[in-house]
Specification:
The protein is globular. It is built from 13 helices and no strands. By secondary structure, it is mainly α. Helix content is about 75%, strand content about 0%. The protein has helices spanning about 1-10, 15-30, 40-60, 70-90, 90-95, 95-100, 110-135, 145-170, 175-190, 205-210, 215-225, 230-255, 255-260.
Length: about 260
């Protein structure tokens, strides 16, 4: 039991907090270095994407949803954090190989610090979500605080998935080309651009097969609908997160030690 606990501590780099923070700090500085707009660039892409979807669904297809601007902006910003962490984390080990040659650090520190960097960037965007909600006539209530537990689950999931992919791509480089289309399909299979009640009853089981399906519906309900999550909206994403952690932890113990030799 003690060995298992120590392994999980190493898996989440809890024994190297100082190094983790320094890499995250470096990542943030590199991301905004020599940039005139700095942090605003991280909002420009998701907000412009949300604006395009808003025009398409609200103006062209005339979706009848009074708070659609807040609905779609919240979904796109959260999805950008999740998918961006997976995409960037996938290449983090290969791009951090120069550090591996100089310092004896675990492979998983790279996708972990990528996830934490994107988490901080997302936290900076939460005032934008609040502002758009207020402009849309939505009064934020206490239930909106559930956004942060859901984001925590997305953080853990995206770290574990990106860690598996960051090692797998060492062996199969073509995965970098495959990930983009997979994430695109995944986005449309998640209630980000549409509500749960728009899904036919016979297909709603797919939300349970989607690790983040209930997370996004829970975020929309708690932030925009002022409703606390149901038991299903809590148990389903937590169960999926535990499964993903266990898979990635097993992957970590079996493969990561020999992966460095293949880079």
């Amino acid at each position: 039991m003690a060995n298992l606990k120590a392994s999980f501590i190493r898996f989440f780099c809890l024994d190297q907090k100082f190094l983790v923070w320094n890499i995250v700090n470096r990542n943030l500085k590199l991301r905004f270095r020599r940039s005139f707009l700095g942090y605003l660039w991280t909002l420009l892409v998701p907000l412009s994407t949300a604006a395009i979807y808003y025009f398409l669904f609200k103006v062209i297809f005339r979706v009848h949803l009074p708070d659609f601007a807040a609905f779609i902006t919240t979904g796109i910003l959260v999805w950008t954090f999740y998918s961006g962490t997976i995409k960037e984390g996938m290449g983090s080990v290969i791009s951090g190989f120069s550090i591996l040659l100089q310092v004896n650090v675990p492979l998983n520190i790279f996708p972990l610090t990528t996830a934490l960097t994107n988490l901080l960037t997302f936290i900076f965007s939460t005032p934008v979500i609040a502002a758009i909600c207020i402009v849309s006539g939505i009064t934020l209530k206490l239930s909106a605080i559930m956004l942060f537990p859901y984001i925590f689950l997305l953080l853990i999931q995206s770290y574990c998935i990106s860690y598996i992919l960051s090692v797998a791509v060492i062996y199969v480089r073509d995965l970098q080309q495959v990930l983009g289309p997979v994430l695109q399909i995944w986005m449309y299979g998640t209630p980000i651009l549409y509500q749960m009640n728009q899904i036919p009853e016979r297909h709603k089981w797919l939300l349970f097969a989607n690790p983040i399906g209930k997370i996004f519906s829970g975020i929309h309900n708690s932030v925009l609908r002022h409703s606390w999550p149901t038991m299903v909206e809590i148990v389903a994403p937590v169960a999926w997160t535990v499964v993903i952690v266990l898979i990635s932890f097993y992957f970590h113990t079996k493969i990561s030690k020999v992966a460095v030799e293949r880079i």
